[in-house]
Automatic annotation (TrEMBL), chain A:
The lineage of its organism: Eukaryota, Metazoa, Ecdysozoa, Arthropoda, Chelicerata. This is Mitotic spindle assembly checkpoint protein MAD1-like isoform X2. Transmembrane segments: none annotated. It comes from Limulus polyphemus. Residues 26-246, 286-341, 374-401 form a coiled coil. Keywords: Cell cycle, Cell division, Coiled coil, Mitosis, Nucleus. InterPro entries: Mad1. Belongs to the MAD1 family.
From TrEMBL, chain B:
SUPFAM superfamilies: The spindle assembly checkpoint protein mad2. PROSITE patterns: HORMA (PS50815). This is Mitotic spindle assembly checkpoint protein MAD2A-like. Signal peptide: none annotated. It comes from Limulus polyphemus (Atlantic horseshoe crab).
């Protein structure tokens, strides 16, 4: 019983426990039910939709099937029609093929006939061509025969005619000659009588003239003799007058010399030898004095040269003085700057000293790092002091060098460089050694420069000496140098001038030759000789013209030629009217003129 | 570059080679840009990715080869601190320009030390930048209208050995000058700073 009760209680407990579980399961089942209901509803809707679609598809299918059947029927009908058409077309084809075959056979037959005809015709053509050629050859032979015969006949006739002409001409000329002879003989006969009378008269005149001639010859000879004598007398007369004049002048000179000499020496006999000796002495004195004058002039010029050189030196020394003064000023400036820098450095040193003193005053204990810092600062101070001493010593050296370099002109490179930069920040040259290669490019360049200057100096000195030796009487050495240099230049320029002039002459000659040749060729080709008479005016004369005055004048202005009036142009009015006024063509006018003149010339030649 | 074992390892000798080669091309560029020698006496070649101009003058080539050979030895012995290219007027001997190349060497390195690692291309790029700046310096440097010549000065330690062909020289400083600092390059063993000092033309 108890067990049952226990089991019952247990069961009741289990039931009680299972109830909520059951409720939960019911709830879960209900929720699942609802889910399944909603799903079922959805699926039912889907089913309805699908049914509708199935119905639509079935309807479509029926429609499609009906259309298919309709189309099939159409297809069958069309197929039957096409088969009928095919059969008819096949029949037509067969007929056409038969026709074509017939036509081909006919064509072949006609072709063969035509070939036969062609062959026949070609044979006939060949035969006819041969006949034609034969006929042609015969014709040519016949023509040649005919021509030959005609030529023979004509030649025969010509020969006969020419023979007759020659005979007739000979007869004519003989007849003419006979006539001329007869006439001349008649004339001569008439003259004979007159000639005899004249002959007698002339003989008498001749006798008289011969007598006169002899007389005249004698008289001429006498005349010549007398003329010669007269000339001689005249020359003698002239010489007489000259000698008389000379005598007068000489006597006057003698008297003058005598008077001169008597002035100097009192009443002594004057001899020409003494005078000549006196004169020679005077001449010698004159030459001596001239030599002394030349010497003095030379000395004067030398002194002037020396004076100029000294003036140049003075100028150079003045320039050097000025340069040294400017350098001194620069160096004074430098010294002032260095002194200022010194002051600054000393002030810095004092400031650092004060800083160090302040540090020392602040620090009571000897702490390791601060002591190190103090030592480091002290080392820097010591360095600064050393550098200061160095700068002061270098300053003093610079001053001494400046004072020492005042008189000679030298460049103080090392002193200024050493004065320049030694500041207590960087350059630490005191602990370093500065080396350079002995054969360095700078020294080599300076050496070469110095050698070049020396060589130039030597050459200039040698030139100077040469010039002073060659020309002592001329002016100073500087102008001589100036003359020597341009003389070589002028010689070269003169050569260039002569070469240029020769070239010009050759060009001118060549130009003249070509221009002359061109003018001649133009004259020969055109027949006209063109000359420039004055500005823009051209005179044209023709080779076939009758006289030199037959010329044409043209004026050239603004790219056009105008014919000016001349005597000859007034004779050519017709040509001018037709070609110049009518056609406005000068070449046509000129060519017509040449043709006219040529025809005139040939007419004259033929006529002659 | 005989002592470089791999592309990135740089020994003391290799670094000395790189630096002396740079000086060769750098000095040639300066001589061409400043017109110390006529431009037709220079020929082109490709180096550091640039078209560089080097002289064809035999005497100049001989001089440069001697100086740079000695410089290389001093670089290996770590005696050289500075190289200066001095450009002066031949007539007046006045210094017109100074190209200063300061050389700092790693003091711990020796010829038999391990090579340091630095990419060769990076070094070449740095050198390329320096040489480009040298060519670009034409824009601000004053024209050298007078005939000029150059000299190479080497700043060394006082205890270094100097052959007989070399002599002591003054520093050829320029009073009243302007200085322009250019780029530097480093091979990890040597560091080279470039600066140009020229005469103040104002």
């Amino acid at each position: 019983m108890k067990q049952l009760e226990k089991s019952f209680s247990i069961l009741e407990n289990s039931v009680e426990d299972a109830e909520p579980l059951k409720k939960r399961a019911c709830i879960e089942l209900e929720t699942e039910m609802e889910k399944w209901k909603t799903a079922y509803e959805r699926e039912a809707e889907k089913f309805v939709k699908l049914k509708a679609t199935v119905r639509r598809l079935a309807e479509k299918q029926t429609k499609a099937e009906s259309e298919l059947n309709h189309l099939k029927e159409q297809f069958t009908t069309e197929r039957e029609e096409h088969e009928k058409q095919l059969l008819s077309s096949q029949r037509l084809c067969k007929q056409l093929e038969a026709d074509i075959n017939e036509l081909e056979t006919e064509k072949c037959e006609t072709v063969q006939e035509l070939h036969h005809k062609i062959e026949r015709l070609q044979g006939e053509v060949k035969a006819s061509n041969e006949e034609v050629e034969n006929v042609k050859n015969q014709m040519e032979l016949a023509k040649k025969h005919v021509l030959k015969e005609e030529e023979m006949k004509s030649n025969m006739k010509l020969e006969e005619a020419s023979k007759k002409i020659k005979e007739l001409e000979e007869k004519l000329s003989a007849h003419q000659e006979d006539m001329a002879c007869v006439q001349s003989l008649q004339k001569e006969l008439s003259r004979m009588v007159e000639m005899e009378e004249e002959n007698q008269k002339l003989q008498e005149d001749n006798r008289i003239l011969r007598e006169f001639k002899t007389n005249s010859i004698l008289l001429h000879e006498k005349l010549e003799d007398f003329q010669k004598q007269q000339q001689e007398f005249e020359s003698i007369k002239i010489q007489l007058t000259k000698t008389q004049e000379e005598n007068v002048s000489l006597t006057s000179q003698l008297q003058q010399w005598k008077s001169l000499k008597s002035d100097k020496d009192s009443c002594e006999t004057i001899s020409p030898s003494q005078v000549s000796r006196h004169i020679s002495q005077l001449q010698k004195n004159v030459t001596l004095l001239k030599n002394e004058v030349f010497m003095l002039n030379g000395k004067k010029q030398e002194l002037e040269n020396n004076k100029l050189q000294l003036n140049d030196k003075i100028g150079k020394f003045k320039n050097d003085l000025e340069n040294t003064n400017t350098k001194l000023q620069l160096q004074d400036h430098l010294i002032k700057r260095l002194q200022k820098k010194l002051l600054l450095v000393s002030k810095e040193r004092d400031s650092y000293k004060r800083v160090i003193d302040s540090y020392e005053s602040e620090v009571t204990l000897a702490v390791g790092p601060q002591m190190e810092r103090i030592q480091w600062l002290e080392s820097i101070l010591a360095e600064y002091r050393v550098k200061l001493d160095q700068t002061e010593s270098e300053l003093n050296q610079a001053r001494e060098q400046l004072l020492g370099n005042f008189q000679p002109v030298k460049k103080s490179e090392g002193s200024t460089q050493t004065d320049a930069v030694v500041l207590p920040t960087q350059q630490d040259h005191s602990q370093m050694r500065i080396v350079h290669f002995k054969n360095n490019p700078l020294d080599l360049a300076i050496q070469t420069r110095v050698e070049d200057l020396r060589q130039e100096n030597m050459t200039l000195k040698a030139k100077l000496e040469q010039l002073t030796q060659e020309k002592p009487s001329t002016s100073s050495s500087l102008p001589c140098q100036e003359k020597c240099d341009p003389s070589s230049d002028t010689g070269g320029l003169k050569e260039q001038l002569t070469v240029a002039e020769l070239k010009n002459k050759r060009l001118l000659n060549a130009f003249r030759k070509t221009s002359q040749e061109f003018r001649e060729v133009c004259y020969l080709l055109t027949g006209f000789k063109i000359d420039v008479s004055s500005q823009n005016k051209y005179k044209m004369s023709h080779m076939y013209s009758e006289s030199e005055n037959d010329y044409l004048l043209f004026e050239y202005a603004n790219g056009r030629l105008k014919l000016l009036e001349t005597e000859y142009s007034s004779q050519l009015q017709e040509l001018i009217d037709t070609y110049l006024k009518g056609h406005n063509s000068i070449p046509a006018f000129l060519s017509s003129l040449t043709l006219e003149l040529f025809s005139q010339q040939t007419y004259f030649l033929d006529k002659n | 570059m005989a002592n470089v074992n791999s592309a990135n390892a740089v020994t003391l000798k290799g670094s000395a080679d790189i630096v002396s080669e740079f000086f060769n091309y750098g000095i040639n560029s300066i001589l061409y840009q400043r017109g110390i020698y006529p431009p037709e006496s220079f020929t082109r070649l490709q180096k550091y990715g640039l078209t560089l101009l080097v002289t064809t003058n035999d005497k100049l080539q001989h001089y440069l080869s001697i100086v740079l050979k000695q410089l290389r030895e001093w670089l290996i012995s770590k005696d050289v601190h500075r190289l200066v290219v001095v450009i002066s007027n031949i007539d007046t001997k006045e210094t017109l320009e100074r190209w200063e190349f300061k050389i700092e060497c790693d003091k711990d390195i020796k010829t038999n030390s391990k090579p340091k690692q630095k990419d060769i291309k990076e070094i070449q790029n740095e050198i390329k930048g320096v040489i480009r700046q040298i060519t670009a310096s034409v824009t601000f440097l004053p024209l050298l209208e007078v005939p000029c010549a150059f000299d190479l000065l080497i700043f060394m330690g006082k205890e270094a050995e100097v052959p007989n062909e070399w002599a002591e020289s003054p520093p050829y400083l320029i009073p009243d000058s302007e200085e322009v600092q250019l780029r530097s390059f480093s091979t990890s063993i040597h560091k080279v700073d470039t600066a140009v000092t020229y005469k103040n033309t104002e």
